[in-house]
Amino acid sequence: FFRPIEKINAIIESYPKGYSGFKRFIALLDTEPDILDRPNAAELPQARGDIQYRDVSFGYEKGRTVLEGIDLTIAAGETVAFVGPSGAGKTTLCSLLPRFYEIQEGAITVDGLDIRDIQLTSLRRQIGIVQQDVFMFSGTLRDNIRYGKLGASDEEVWEAARRAELESFIRGLADGLDTIVGERGVKLSGGQKQRLSIARMFLKNPPILILDEATSALDTETEASIQRSLSELAEGRTTLIIAHRLATIRHADRIVVVTPEGIEEQGSHEQLLKRGGHYAKLQQAQHVYA
Ligand code: ATP
């Protein structure tokens, strides 16, 4: 009974950009079949989360390469933030990992296994994506949170809500977890929706996380407290952050600067500042405009 839903779950929860509506999702399913399991694709047990991109090239259309010859090694448990100009390919780079698109050259591995040799559902089970457009369906809060792990007990749902700092909000509602959300129910704020998606990820508990940082404005306090929840979520997982703000990535283990020419530089915040390159200039510019 759960199989097709699990599949939907794996796809929707993690689709890279803005597929929040069910109709668009169906359209997506129709286009999905180009990516299939290889006949001998393996089931990946819980991954450690070592990731490697080896000489990866990719373009959405023939003759127009977005990423070329990308080499990148990310250790299990490491937090890596991608920064760089809009359109440079940060999102694309991350969406190749759950195989939303097939690379044209090179290889991407998880724990040393080529991702094309791993069953797609099993690969996507290892990867959680938190993005600004949170997929919500009409139903109870319980079901919306449980979407991260179908069949989770109430106890697990509450624990996830607590870690996502959503507990007191839910306790304050007359119907608690039975509260209907969506068009016919309680409308959640942008921050609450993000917390809900964080709660789902605590339930899903994937070894690999992709955080697509919100560009839409949240007030500073909400922003800071969501950052706290996200840092807690990232703990012990390999985390890739598609960063839009410099302030939030300062503490990443590594910052990777992606430009249309490829990976221009990488290192810690301090290392990159000392280097005086692209990242240092971005920092300066932010101070000038702040
Ligand atoms: P931003 O900071 O604005 O999110 P980004 O660095 O994440 O940008 P991408 O979204 O990866 O950049 O886009 C890289 C390039 O690929 C851009 O030229 C973009 O127009 C193109 N692109 C992105 N998604 C698609 C798609 N689904 N089909 C065709 N081209 C795409």
TrEMBL record:
Keywords: ATP-binding, Membrane, Nucleotide-binding, Transmembrane, Transmembrane helix. One of its GO terms (cellular component) is plasma membrane. It comes from the Bacteria. Residues 51-285 form the ABC transporter domain. Coiled coil: none annotated. It is a multi-pass membrane protein. The keyword Transferase does not apply. One of its GO terms (molecular function) is ATP hydrolysis activity. Its main location: membrane. It is found in: Cell membrane. Belongs to the ABC transporter superfamily. This is ATP-binding cassette, subfamily B. It comes from Alkalicoccus daliensis. The chain holds residues 283 to 572 of 572 of the full protein.
